[in-house]
Amino acid sequence: MKLLLIKVFSILFFLVSSSAFACSISARVSIVGNEFPAIQTVGAGAKECKGAKVTANLTADHQKINVAGMSSKPAEYTTAIVANTSIVALLNNDLIRPLDDLVNKHGKDLKKNQLITIDGKIMAVAFMANAQHLVYRKDILKKLNIDVPKTYEEMLAAAKKIRASGLVKNPVGGAYKAGWNLAQEFNNMFIGYGGSHFKGNSAEPNVNSDAGVKALKMMKSLSEYMNPDFLTHDSNATNAEFRAGNVAIMNMWGSRAATLVDADGVSMEVKNGMDIAGPMTVGGGKTPASTLFWDGWTVAKKISDEEAEATFIAMTNAIRPSILDNEDIRKQAVWLIEGYKPTDAARGVFAAAKMNTTPYPMLPYAGLMHSAIGKEISDFMQGKETADKTLSDIEDAYRASAKEKGFI
Amino acid sequence: MKHRTFFWFILPTFLAMFFFITLPIISVVIQSFHTPHDNILITVENCDPFGCKKVTSIDHEATKELKNEKPLGKFVGLDIYFDRGHLALEQVKQHWNNSENLLSFLSLISDLPFYKAIFFTLTFTFTVTPIMLFLGLLIALGVNAFNRKLKGLIIFFSLLPMIVTPLIGSIILFWMIDSRGIVGNFLQIMFENPNLSLKASTSLTWVTLIVYGVWHAIPFSFIVFYAGLQTLPKDQIESAQIDGANTFQQTIHIIIPHIMPLITFVTLMQLMDNFRVFEPIIGFNAEAHATSLSWIIFNDLGGETRQLSAAATSSILTIIGIIILLLPVLIKTWREFDFKK
């Protein structure tokens, strides 16, 4: 009898606790996205839903597979987690559906500024913001009596002092790996000098300008204080250098700042010495030399309405306000979710937003420009050609690919 | 063999080759002659967490009809072949007119992506292939002379570089040659130059890639040559020894002619393999210093841009390149073939 009671109670308890989640779905959900900690949290949150299968493929190569994985009918992935850079490819290929109906039906917890609208239609739901900003060693700056740099010029001066002191040989860090990373650093600097990538609203390139030359020269000057292998260092490698105590000041992603020194084997010196600040400006400009990003999720077009609804429910569940009750999750990102109170790790991104940092342009041909910059710029960084030549090479390379894709 | 028997014998292979090689290549050729339709651009208002803004976007409704009518895209003929990303006819012509001698012309066109890739690919192919043939033969001769009991063990260890996946192998070496890695640090001490970095200079990166290429490919030539050495004509060698020929003379006059067909085979395979060098460039993060045609294809297909027509064109150019490369060897084999047999 006692045993029976326990059974009944445990079943009751199970029913109550599972209904407390209130996430039940009736069709498959399949996620593709990047793999940093906040996105892992979102993937795990979607998997809490019961009633149908939820799978997640979270990988750094997500941009290489999401278009193909959503082009088939029915699409392999019912949702792609994207940023304002990577949503463009999905929009260009017409692979994601408007979410207005689903937001009305299931999205009461979503804030208005989470909804990404394009031509009045909701195309994605953002859950976090991201930007690159300053990460530095306060112990080293203090020892040498250097103020926290607010501009890239101050960063250069600080680098000079640190190297001269002998504390760190190559004090500046940066994700300068040839390709996407290096191009992103150029974008930051170019925007900081007041440049704009395209002529007006057209797809005509506009990087071969005074701002372009200055941006390249500043990057070259910074690279002289970096590890000579900088063209092979992406953000992972740069962070490893910081953890090892080989870097004292760097421009780094906010989404990586919270967990930067959590790894095993990081010395107490680095752990206690690490601090963050807002993005830097350059050349006397007011706009920071950085770019604002949001990360959010989309729902595939080529799936059934049931799958779309299930996907929406599961993904909304993954970013419900109550996930922020967990301190570890709260500090993983600058969440755009209702009720989020910024942690210490969010200061940099918040400063970026407050300083009116330019958001990454959501233009159909922005990816082609980014890729052209990534391909051509390393020749200049190695001193093989002049800034003017590199900038005109970028424009030529961009024109060839934009012509192929039918933009000019 | 009777023609009928031969036909049935070859049919499965022929079908497989038709479906899995010929058809895909035809589709790639067709793709390379087409580009996506011109996009009809409109200005729309986008809103995101950072505010609202008027931006350019693609009008999908307007482009849809065009796409349904001609799903292959716009026919552009050889336009993509001649654009700056590939043969760059216009730029090459310009550079030719602007340069005084061949050397300055070459240095000017080596800035164009296709020629930059070709220069590295050819350098890689024509250094790795001969070095690998020579060293492979040397190792095979050495191992063959070894004590029978030790041979198995030695062969196993000699094959290791080939067993390691190229991408993994190059990533491991990438960290070893880092200025703080075991090899990189050793080189710094040896050359008494604390700033020496294999990853920072183009020429040293090329050397690294070539050394890696040789390291990875030697086991293949070694094992093929070793197998060939097991069939050496013993009586010929014995008579040569009686005539007083030394080891070097035996090698040159008996062993090499005997395994010549194998040398041709390995050369063919390696020319093809090395021409499509790819994994080491990714593994060594070497794209700033060295690119290859395969890397260009990978780069065009990946990321947000997905330039299918550009990738298709590079693929066709790679195939043409391999055909040109193999032509001399193929012609030679064709001539030597005894049709009467």
Outline the fold blueprint.
The complex is a heterodimer of chains A (408) and B (341).
Chain A: H1 2-21, E1 29-33, H2 37-47, E2 54-58, H3 62-71, E3 79-83, H4 87-92, H5 100-106, E4 115-118, E5 121-137, H6 138-143, H7 152-165, E6 172-174, H8 180-192, H9 210-223, H10 235-243, E7 249-253, H11 254-257, H12 268-273, E8 274-276, E9 292-297, H13 305-318, H14 327-330, E10 334-335, H15 347-354, H16 366-381, H17 387-404
Parallel strand pairs in A: 1-2, 1-3, 6-7
Antiparallel strand pairs in A: 3-9, 4-5, 5-7, 5-8, 5-9, 5-10
Chain B: H1 3-32, E1 34-35, E2 41-48, E3 51-58, H2 60-69, E4 74-75, H3 79-82, H4 89-98, H5 102-109, H6 113-144, H7 148-163, H8 166-176, H9 182-190, H10 202-229, H11 234-242, H12 247-258, H13 260-275, H14 279-283, H15 293-301, H16 308-336
Antiparallel strand pairs in B: 1-4, 2-3
Helix pairs in contact in B: 1-16, 6-10, 6-13, 7-10, 10-13, 13-16, 15-16
Strand order of the largest sheet of chain B: 1-4
Sheet having the most strands of chain B? 2 strands, antiparallel
Largest sheet report of chain A = 10 strands, mixed
Percent of residues in helices of chain A comes to: 40-55%
Low-confidence stretches of chain B: none
CA-based shape of chain B? globular
Write down how many β-strands of chain B occur, each being a DSSP E stretch of 2 or more residues: 4
Report the principal-axis shape of chain A.
Answer: globular
Q: What's the CATH superfamily of the largest domain in chain A, by name?
A: Periplasmic binding protein-like II
Largest interface: chains, residues each:
A-B, 67 and 54 residues
The CATH homologous superfamily name of the domain at 112-336 in chain B equals MetI-like
* Shape-level CATH architecture of the domain at 112-336 in chain B: Orthogonal Bundle
- Using the coordinates shown, work out and report the CATH topology of the domain at 112-336 in chain B: MetI-like fold
Helix content of chain B: 55-70%
Q: What are the secondary-structure elements of chain A, in order, as H or E?
A: HEHEHEHHEEHHEHHHEHHEEHHEHHH
Nearest-angstrom radius of gyration of chain B? 26 Å
